[in-house]
Amino acid sequence: MGVGNYTLANAETVYIEDLHVHGYYSGSELDLDQTNLDYENLEETLVSLLPGSFCKVENESYGGGSIIAENNFYSIVLTHWVGYYALSVVIRDNDVRYDWGINPLAAHHHARVALRFLDKIHENYPLRVPTSAWTSGMYQKKLAA
């Protein structure tokens, strides 16, 4: 049957294909050192494109991936899935002032914050978005510069 698209609850998610991170696979043995360096470069590029309110995070996992940065409202989660990296802007659900844990201000601005970040990434990497549980399509820039 195959593997479906990667998704997270309360998140805007896009995909960056392995090809655009690691280059073409020649069929020879994978160089794990180069693969790790490619991942570190991807992570550093993504963090550098975030607004100043985000702080880099080390060694914190979430939903099968890693939180690479966060601020008071959102976490940026990078997950390697089958053939691509899933990049998610997740609403943090740890605000103790609200029974459901989500700050209403974060929920209200989530789409706009995510799209602004994703539009910046799209200038560096071709992005894909889920179009169904099993398919994806090209990302279209959403917000004006």
Describe it for me?
The chain is α+β, with helices and mostly antiparallel strands and 145 residues long. The protein is 28% helix and 29% strand. The protein is built from 3 helices and 7 strands; from the N terminus they run E-H-H-E-E-E-E-H-E-E. The protein has helices at residues 18-22, 32-48, 104-122, and strands at 11-17, 55-62, 65-70, 74-80, 84-91, 128-130, 136-138. It is globular and about 55 Å long. The mean pLDDT is 90.
Summarize this, please?
This protein has helices spanning 18-22, 32-48, 104-122; strands at 11-17, 55-62, 65-70, 74-80, 84-91, 128-130, 136-138.
Give average pLDDT, whole number.
90
Described by the principal axes of the CA atoms, the overall outline is: globular
Instruction: Please indicate the percent range of residues in DSSP E strands (runs of 2 or more).
Output: 25-35%
Main beta sheet strand tally, sense and closure: 5 strands, antiparallel
Sheet/helix structural class: alpha+beta
Radius of gyration of CA atoms, rounded to a whole number: 16 Å
Q: In order across it, which strands form the biggest sheet?
A: 1-5-4-3-2
End-to-end distance, in Å?
41 Å
Helix-residue proportion: 25-40%
Secondary structure tally, helices:
3
Unreliable stretches covering 5 or more consecutive residues: none
Number of strands: 7
Please write the string of helix (H) and strand (E) elements: EHHEEEEHEE
Descriptive tags:
145 residues; alpha+beta; two-stranded antiparallel ribbon; 7 strands
